Amino acid sequence: MMRPLNEEKVFKDPVHNYIHVQDTTIWRLINTAEFQRLRRIRQLGTSYFTFHGAEHSRFSHSLGVYEITRQIISLFERNQYADWPKEEKLLTLCAALLHDLGHGPFSHSIEEAFDMNHEDWTCRIILGDTEIHNILCEVDPELPAKVASVIAKTYDKAIVVNLVSSPLDADRMDYLLRDAYYTGVNYGTIDVDRIIRMLRPHDGRIVVKESGMHAVEDYLMSRYQMYWQVYFHPVTRSSEIMLRLIFRRAKELYNSGFQFEFMMKPIISLFEEQLSVEQYLKLDEALIQTAFMQWTTERDSLLSQLCERFMHRRLYKYVELESHNMDMINDVREAFIKAGLDPEYDLVVDLPSDLPYDIFRPGDEVSQKQILLLDRQDRLQEISEVSDIVRSISGLHRGKVHLYYPEEKLNAALSLFSPSITHIFI
Amino acid sequence: MMRPLNEEKVFKDPVHNYIHVQDTTIWRLINTAEFQRLRRIRQLGTSYFTFHGAEHSRFSHSLGVYEITRQIISLFERNQYADWPKEEKLLTLCAALLHDLGHGPFSHSIEEAFDMNHEDWTCRIILGDTEIHNILCEVDPELPAKVASVIAKTYDKAIVVNLVSSPLDADRMDYLLRDAYYTGVNYGTIDVDRIIRMLRPHDGRIVVKESGMHAVEDYLMSRYQMYWQVYFHPVTRSSEIMLRLIFRRAKELYNSGFQFEFMMKPIISLFEEQLSVEQYLKLDEALIQTAFMQWTTERDSLLSQLCERFMHRRLYKYVELESHNMDMINDVREAFIKAGLDPEYDLVVDLPSDLPYDIFRPGDEVSQKQILLLDRQDRLQEISEVSDIVRSISGLHRGKVHLYYPEEKLNAALSLFSPSITHIFI
Amino acid sequence: MMRPLNEEKVFKDPVHNYIHVQDTTIWRLINTAEFQRLRRIRQLGTSYFTFHGAEHSRFSHSLGVYEITRQIISLFERNQYADWPKEEKLLTLCAALLHDLGHGPFSHSIEEAFDMNHEDWTCRIILGDTEIHNILCEVDPELPAKVASVIAKTYDKAIVVNLVSSPLDADRMDYLLRDAYYTGVNYGTIDVDRIIRMLRPHDGRIVVKESGMHAVEDYLMSRYQMYWQVYFHPVTRSSEIMLRLIFRRAKELYNSGFQFEFMMKPIISLFEEQLSVEQYLKLDEALIQTAFMQWTTERDSLLSQLCERFMHRRLYKYVELESHNMDMINDVREAFIKAGLDPEYDLVVDLPSDLPYDIFRPGDEVSQKQILLLDRQDRLQEISEVSDIVRSISGLHRGKVHLYYPEEKLNAALSLFSPSITHIFI
Amino acid sequence: MMRPLNEEKVFKDPVHNYIHVQDTTIWRLINTAEFQRLRRIRQLGTSYFTFHGAEHSRFSHSLGVYEITRQIISLFERNQYADWPKEEKLLTLCAALLHDLGHGPFSHSIEEAFDMNHEDWTCRIILGDTEIHNILCEVDPELPAKVASVIAKTYDKAIVVNLVSSPLDADRMDYLLRDAYYTGVNYGTIDVDRIIRMLRPHDGRIVVKESGMHAVEDYLMSRYQMYWQVYFHPVTRSSEIMLRLIFRRAKELYNSGFQFEFMMKPIISLFEEQLSVEQYLKLDEALIQTAFMQWTTERDSLLSQLCERFMHRRLYKYVELESHNMDMINDVREAFIKAGLDPEYDLVVDLPSDLPYDIFRPGDEVSQKQILLLDRQDRLQEISEVSDIVRSISGLHRGKVHLYYPEEKLNAALSLFSPSITHIFI
């Protein structure tokens, strides 16, 4: 199914140096309107408020995931590994390239606010009346459905799904490297070449050669640190909270018949939960930012102030609670209400959480969420059985509850709080 | 005038590792709405169409220019150089931080299309009714005017102007490093620490110690290569041409009374050349992209097609002419007209040009545009008198004329061209 | 006591970019014969056999330790921390610069073979009749003794000792960065600027601000990975074993009156355990390599073969045992003897071990081996009480027993082994 | 002729990340005594006295040259370029790997002092009774002679010679990158991937695609800067001068029958110009340094002082002359003689020179020393005809005459000099 280009084409990339495109279909997919749209969706959402360098888009990341996948398959082919199904190459590359296609603007927040899911949208775009759909169809009428099933993790060859989504997939490898590069932190600098060299197609899935254990440990630790240093940074969480509060308020206003001075069609469709693929594709971060900027002068002062906060980076401040104490949180909420603050918009309780690695428990079935090591005798072992490091971080939930609030309002109310509540905020 | 923060604050930066903020005024300036707006203006305009990593904003760059200036002044102070006027520190740092404040969306194109100038806007914002103006005034009511005069290069102490704008200023040093980092090309990797170590305040201006000549050569060569490899890349030029054609067409339509389905107030003010500071501050790249996206469905097919080209990266193709032959260009234009193409919108002639370094000519006055070397006997020499390398690139204009055009229309018209014209395009 | 240079001097350094020398005494110490000798002692001993890039010397590392210490003190001074004893600056810098002065050729192996200790030699050189001693005396006749006591960890101000040797000292920070740079592995890339920013002089010792916990975790993990990936790499261990066997054999021969065709005075003194400082200073890696090269043609075939192995990198092969089973090891030794192999020279049992971090146990006194975190309420906590990551690696001993042997001899003997022994080696 | 390894092997390399070995012959060549010897020969001779990081060996560089060559050939094969003679692959790789095999200790100085040539030695080792010779013979009895002829540039297929030695060969690309990495200067950071992508086998030689012109310009400028910033650094030149004076003095003494307290056989053979391959292979930098260290206590004070200078880095100081004035140099020499200084050992006149690129002159034959660009019409042009940059640096000889001398002796004599001579030295 591969249709080689006459001449290999390259994109200059700061992370992989060059992205190599060797196939006509891949080249055409990149040049579709739907794929180019990813330039207007940032990879790390609002993280640029915390790390000003993190302004990179999902376009770059998608190319990176494609490139890592290409390198892995190229190594499999070079070494003629018997367990790699060669005929799946184009499908795998397409799925790798397109796996993030459905991300919306400020993805995590909008998904939470409107109960959407970017994977569903990826599949809708691939299967809908789009340029991407047409290009895939030209290769094979079954291809769009196949690509969608790989992304939905329902494709029947687990090894293909494995490359695109597993604890050690091309997606995670690229985002660690890329996010580290653009934020400037060095926690994400993993030896991706070494990890790639250690991967083996084996009995229908991707496993890791035993001698690659340390590289995998290092990768899991990098992931762990990136989560706590970057992805869950409280300033980023605060900006996501701003976003969610804006969406919530605007939808409330819309539902209550408020007349917006500025409104756009894709946003109406979003509020009405009737987004078509066509409207969704116009819903990029430029549009959201433009609406928010215009809303800074809407008559509803709650909305306009929230929009000002987001646009000018006047985020809610936060305190970290020592323990996850629901009684205390309820007390705080009560105190806010008594002091005349709004318990819905002036206080947000947040608990970030992540499992750096899902440990294997004896008796469990071998799942896609596990990393298996292949030893010299061709035996498989789940990595946390062998690595102290992995075992030690597997069960960790380090997240602590944070309270977010508008500083000025809180300061004005502090004198009305009881000492035990006041104490939390100073 | 400096008001030290209790505790030094830092921003993590991929280029300088950390940006150090030690003064309250600087901290407050960064947190203004006007400065935060720079997050929505890309440093390299449309270059991300050519180098997908180049998505960084003028916000990062402005912090970087501030940081380099801070490092230079810190070294001057540490070494107690007599010719450095210590009392100018805060003014210099403010001017460095704010020098790009007035950049509009896709700056070069919009300035060309509407005959605006970002330096004027920088001064209007600093002197207008803005948060920045107020913060500067609090320090000293004269400060806004002083900062503006440094940026306008009219401040009476040339040494301050020199640090902020000269052939070897903090601005150029940061953008070379930063643009190289984000594009991923390595042409811009200069040894900025070494250059900084070689700078000397001397007799009212900044000069370079003679032993730093090679570092300066390397810097000028980097600049030269970045111009031709990145800033003047024909794909980037093509995207800038798209932008200008869109602006031209939209303004034409507006002037002719066309009823836009989507229009926003700052754009109307732009067309009417009546932008207030307040409107200008809303005119960011998100707004422009949103307008263009909406215009992809306007009834004017020229406008809608141009917007589609820009949004989906379907740029005009180009050919490079071997020589700058006006007759040939006129012949091409004639042929386009005869073949029914639009000479205004279907053919754009472009000649990029840059002087990597303005050479000193005997008899010239010493200007701000020159780099002076200071030898051990405290004599000054203009660098191109000493360096073969600098002399050799000083007069270079390497730009070649390029013709840009819509590929499909041209292909359809090719058979109507005479062979000599056809020949140019294949 | 500081005597500033007229002009700051710099060394170009790949790790820190520039090493800054601002004091005359430091400059003069670097230019002594004893300090220059460190150019002929590799930082990582025989690791270059495993990682060919690891050819860097203790000279570079010593400059790096000095530079990090200088940066820490500079930050302490800039922030005017009350708990930093300013008068200790020169002493601390000298101790940082000189702390590795006494390292001999292939330090770890020679120390093990001849029961020497490089810290003792550092002190002997500083206190002996050397250029370094004279320069320190010129500043203050007490200075040599003080510098020696800091290095011997007996100096009465623990905070000075802390900067030079503690679990988070300038020594460890430099070697992680430097060894990672020269080997090319990325396990050692720590954010040293951030760690430095988090250090606080506090109540007579150096502690870490609580918000720096993650940076410290990352640093400890880097150290852990470097130990197992680089410092304890079995190929490096094998080359160290070669070295020790050569030293053992040569000393045996010398003691037995063997007439060496090639012998040098410092080696005789080494064998006779009568090394003077003067002789020790001549005992560099060039001399050891020259002796070994000449000994490749000595009449004792055991010695000459071992030397050939070392010089031409024909190292012993190894197997890793699944468990530390003394009975099995004894069985192997028996089998070697029965098969006519030499149990002293043909079989080496090796168990590398390291404690990545010494955990605090309730009831223990606070020791120099602990990293203390300082929270906002000025309370101190030992890091493993707070960090799951640190706790999880604190007690880890991952080392496994390896057997090293000459492959050809083993292969020739394999048929004489019982199957259970044979099984270990294939 | 290729004999693939069962499994590709890799070396971790800081410059190329991994060196890939896929062929048995290459693997065996690397493991010979002769190739391992390159670990004891520094790539940059005495440059570590100027840039302390520059302690890397010719071993690393040789692997790097091999790796770049492997990548070039791999690209040629992948793109199935018709003009690449596939059957020459192993020969080319062997020649790339072995091209520096004959380098002696502190190569440039020893070659100058004893009129030797490392290429001759490379060929003698390849053709002599060595492990390398035997391994090559096993593949093909003609192979040693072929490899030698490629290195001697007499092999009849110019394209093979081109890859190994030409102005744009793998050798130069690796040393620029590697020397920049280890010294820490950034002048040598070229985009080697891009250059490789632009190379084309064409009509019996390697040419460059026209669109690669800028990458080649950048490469030539890097080379130019590295020459003047690193390779010709006056401190390095001074250390090379020390070396040559030591060799000269020691040989004089030997010839005059002086009884050395310390002498080694390879040095005697060197002095008698009767070095066998066997002796030459023992003549590494460890041996030279050991001899020099021992000679610091020889009875001849000139020799012992020169050796002290070299071992303890007490190099001759230097002045740069404004012009190359032979009369002035003669006057200086006279003054030295009159003042009782030794015109042979106390004054060294040095003029470094390099041609960054040999320009093509109309009428010249196309030579191996030229870089040819291939345009879209398959026409070849010599690069300096097209590139202003290359033309401008082609003829440059920037070297200035330097005088080197022992500072203390000169200072003692200064009062005896006439003012015009004194003036030169202050």
TrEMBL record, chains A, B, C, D:
Coiled-coil residue windows: none
Ranges where the HD domain occurs: 58-176
One GO-annotated biological process of the protein: dGTP catabolic process
InterPro entries: dGTPase-like, HD/PDEase_dom, HD_assoc_2, HD_domain
A single MF term (Gene Ontology): dGTPase activity
Protein name per UniProt: HD domain-containing protein
Organism: Paenibacillus glacialis
